[in-house]
Design goal:
mainly alpha, about 190 residues
Length: about 190
């Protein structure tokens, strides 16, 4: 008799013993009745955590390079979390990730106030875009992004920001929002709400 058949036979005998089989069946029972019905909450926690982590790490590159690029997950994640889970979650994701991202980059300055004002503008406009988002998520995201960048540009210019860096940030941020919501955003949104 080949050794694989012997090992397989011994494994099956041990697995099918009541002292091993009963705890496995109980574990499946618990999984079925306690975990599966809670899938929606687990899914919500998963996406909130993903966007929290990605948002916090969005400005990490600024530790090493003195450039502002608008490819970040703070605005994208805040928009999707506000749309899917409400203003409360959006306020948490937007403000916490904006603040932590600035701390991680190790150069906190007065522009953090503008960043927080612009992300809160995005949060406040998002519920008004919920109806539009069901039919055209891309247009809703671009309108929210417009409000976000409008507040950001105005605030940065008032604080004496560099127009060149601001143009680079806004243009890359609009491009990133457009690219993200053309393909990835709708799939993520369906996964978050479906």
């Amino acid at each position: 008799m080949p050794i694989q058949t012997l090992v397989k036979g011994e494994f099956q005998k041990k697995l099918l013993q009541p002292r091993i089989l009963i705890p496995i069946l109980i574990a499946f029972f618990v999984l079925f009745f306690f975990v599966i019905p809670q899938w929606k909450e687990i899914r919500n926690i998963f996406f909130i955590t993903v966007f929290f982590v990605l948002g916090c790490l969005s400005y990490f590159y600024r530790r090493f390079f003195n450039v502002r690029i608008g490819i970040e997950f703070i605005s994208v994640g805040t928009f999707l979390c506000t749309l899917a889970y409400g203003v409360g979650v959006g306020l948490f994701i937007g403000n916490a990730t904006s603040f932590i991202a600035e701390i991680i980059r190790a150069r906190v300055d007065e522009r953090i106030i503008i960043n927080i004002l612009s992300i809160n503008g995005l949060i406040l406009i998002t519920p008004f875009l919920a109806g539009l988002a069901t039919s055209n998520l891309l247009i809703a995201a671009l309108i929210a992004n417009f409000v976000y960048n409008l507040i950001g540009v105005g605030g940065n210019m008032l604080l004496g920001g560099n127009p060149g860096k601001t143009i680079v940030f806004v243009s890359t941020n609009v491009f990133w929002t457009l690219a993200f919501f053309l393909r990835i955003g709708p799939l993520v949104y369906i996964a978050m709400t479906g």
